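note to self: dont lose this again. the chain is below, predicted strucutre after it. 177 aa total, dont forget to put it in the shared folder this time
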Amino acid sequence: MKSHSTTILSVRRGGTVAIGGDGQATLGTTIAKSDVRKIRKLLDGQVLTGFAGSTADAFALMERFEGRLKDFPNNITRAAIELAKEWRTDRALRKLEAMMIVVSKSETLLLTGNGDVIQPTDGIAAIGSGGSYALAAAKALLAHTELPPDKIVYEALRIASEIDIYTNSNIVVEELS
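---
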């Protein structure tokens, strides 16, 4: 059975960044769990990360990323690049099926198993099965409202949950300012 899960969204506005995710994990055509917490605080709360894809794979990647953050505590881009290099070259890691969004007070990064470390120019990043829906909603809310990032993330994820069957409305949002 193929596992589907989640939508993760991050929005940056002004000096604040928010990241959120829904709580659904699906196995085949069944909701396996509706309250998975996919947003984690790393480096004593200085870095937030959200994951999509296989849960076990995502946790393995998060542990490795946290190790890289300890190696490069003031440079999350360098930590992400080192993880991406390892992810691409290590035989076991190469098979992991997950994606991550990593945010600090000043940076937003999207990491993929293809070795990508992408820094979005508009401060919005989305991954997961409902990522495109959440991204579109966030872009509209950012352009046409004065809502703060945490409210944009929440509303965009709520909208995605109404469209994507693998996204629920059990939403968790964390913020750094």
